[in-house]
Design goal:
- The protein is globular.
- It has one domain: Sandwich (ATP Synthase, domain 1).
- It is mainly β and about 80 residues long.
- It starts with a strand and ends with a strand.
- Strands 2-1-9-8-5 form a 5-stranded mixed sheet, with no helix packed on it. A 4-stranded antiparallel sheet has the order 4-3-6-7, with no helix packed on it.
- A hairpin with a 4-residue loop joins strand 1 and strand 2.
- Helix content is about 0%, strand content about 65%.
């Protein structure tokens, strides 16, 4: 799935990923490809982007934000 993590002034990550785990307002969520569409607020915590099953995740510490998930990917606005 295609992932974009962006702040107002810069893109922190953009690319393909196997999965992404985010600190949702109601609890941690792991997203895989073709996830059902949703919009959620994020609380403080770590976003972990798994580019592949066999590599260490890229970690982004966030203070909160908005997550939008579509069938083809996800966007996080911080």
């Amino acid at each position: 799935m295609h992932i974009v993590i962006a702040q107002v002034d810069e893109v922190l990550f953009e690319g393909e990923a196997h999965s992404m785990t985010v600190p949702g307002a109601e609890g941690e969520m792991t997203l895989l490809g073709e996830h059902m569409p949703l919009i959620s607020t994020l609380k403080e915590g770590d976003i972990r982007v798994h580019v592949s099953k066999d590599t260490e995740p890229k970690i982004f510490h966030v203070q909160g934000g908005i997550l939008e998930v579509r069938a083809d990917g996800a966007t996080v606005i911080l």
